[in-house]
Prior knowledge:
Elements: H1 4-22, H2 25-37, E1 53-57, E2 63-69, E3 73-74, H3 82-89, E4 93-96, H4 103-110, H5 131-142, H6 154-157, H7 159-166, E5 170-171, H8 173-183, E6 187-190, H9 194-199, H10 206-218, H11 220-235, H12 239-252, H13 256-277, E7 280-285, H14 295-302, E8 305-308
Amino acid sequence: MKSNKEESSYYQVFVMAARFVGRSFIPTLTICLLLSACAHKTAADTKASSSLLYRISTPEGQTSHLFGTVHVIPAEKLVWTEEAEQTLKQSQSLWLEIDMRDMASVQKELLKYVVMPGAETLSKHVAEDEYPEWENRYLQKTGLPLSFVSNWYPIMATAPLIQKQAGASGVSVEEHILTEAHKHQLKVFGLETIQEQLAALGKIPINAQVKMLEEALFKEEETKHAYEKMIELYVAQDLDALWRFSEADLKKMAAEKALLQIRNERWMTKLTDVLREGNAFIAVGALHLAGPDGLINMLKKTGYLVEAL
């Protein structure tokens, strides 16, 4: 039995994880996985021009816009230009990865996906003689006993640690865009349901999730450097470099298909009607835009004109 104080702390960490879902949790997981895999990497310098904002034109002449976000970023590094603001203001609808207007329902749905099936626990994936150090570090870094989250998916247990990488001022680009959309009275929609987004979680191997948690616990400086490098590439609006920094490790962790490719393909089906209607502002994680199976390439192959702004 947990004490009332423990129950309160347990609820707090659950709410923290729930807020990560509200900020579009699965792409945040992509960042988490990459922080683990890229802790010992540096990105190559690049002069390739790129952008976060793109105009999409249909063969019939309808126009919409695509914007690449990052789901947790220090507030002082938020990328939101006047051009992006005016483009959003002139749009009729906003399409996010999920509809973030009803966060109570999102958090309720999350409860179904937090706990691993059966009697699965983190301790089964960590050497017995090493587990006490995991407990010590988790308590030291989060203020919470690891036992609170030992039967959660390791990615979920990582939420408080990843928030720390963004610092106390960490904000969500999507939340900022949603706030602006409300000011301009745009209709808001989601490209997928929260159930579809969370289903991707089960396709990421548990050992990859455990590795991510291990890196966050034991290699804080290296994971912090990797996070800062990814944010640097995002702020530079260099999608090509961001993709190169991420690609090999996404594939190595068997995460690219689950987190990006399959979801991009599903979104393309819905975007056909969205783009036909036109005047939509589509804001999704920046890694969804880049790469051979990214939305930019898929849109071009389908016959749309895609122009960086």
